[in-house]
Amino acid sequence: MAVELSTRDSRGTQTTPTFSTMRFPAGEAHVKVTDDRTDTRDLIEIATLRGASGDDLMMLGMWADAVRQRGSKSVALVPYLPGARQDRGIPFGAKVYADVLNGFGIDQVIAFDPHSPVIVGLVEHLTVVTSERVVRDAVVGAPGTEQRYQGIIAPDKGAVARATAVAEACDLPVYKAEKHRNPDTGKLDGFSCEPLPDTGRFLVVDDICDGGGTFMGLAGSTGLRKDRLGLWVSHGVFSGRATALAEHFGEIVTTDSYPAQSEVPGLVTVPLTPFLTEQIR
Which domains does the chain have, with CATH numbers? Predict the structure, then answer.
């Protein structure tokens, strides 16, 4: 993936981009001025970074320096905050990534549904867009309309707050599932889910999917056919066996925050830019 650059004027209207990206033959990131305006103080320069590529992070830094030198405002859309799952231990990855972003001196960083509150406290000038309105508007439907799902499922304890927020936004009940681990080995030992109604469709809500094993195990524990189950993940990595998710869920929805590593059959991808850019201040 590459860093995408755009420019807005003081009224928020899209205009000719000021910068474009390139790489030197040796691989170094570089940003070129492609529209050399004389007055740049009221311009808003926007860079979008998807995924966690170190090369793209370096390009983001080059762009931030160029924007600062020209006196414009810099806004970085970083929907998938790199390092959000590395929020403890050695190395302290969340802080390492946050230090990199902070070092760029970006005026505003906008992220989507970060995995951990730890990184939220580490990244400076951060605006967080949560997932509940996106799920309501793009997947479930608003209360009072013909909603496509009749309940929300939290796949484990860590997802309860996120799933509950979605359920409240959609005015739907939330059902809790759990992972069970062998107390002697710590290994995953199975899944369980609260009893579900005999009719209706249910949406599993979480923030990240890697290989999808948790979600496949959960689907089996519900006893529901795939046409009664949907899956929403804010960030779809979809590594390893994730393509098999389509055997368990009738609908799988994610965003364009991360370039999926595998092609999941029937995957629906929601563009985040409209939800992120409305938070530019």
Answer: 4-129 (3.40.50.2020), 132-270 (3.40.50.2020)
- Dihedral pair phi/psi, residue 86, rounded to 5°: -100, 60
Measured distance CA(66)–CA(49) in Å, rounded: 16
Residue 92 buriedness (CB in 10 A; 0-12 / 13-18 / 19+) = middle
Q: To 5 degrees, how large is the angle CA 63–CA 1–CA 113?
A: 85
Q: First and final CA of the chain: distance in angstroms?
A: 26
Rg for the chain, CA atoms, rounded: 21
Helix count and strand count (H, E) for the chain: 7, 15
CB atoms within 10 A of CB 30: 14
Closest CA to 204 of 171, 170, 176: 176
The string of pLDDT tens digits covering residues 200-242 is: 999 999 999 999 999 999 999 999 999 999 999 999 999 999 9
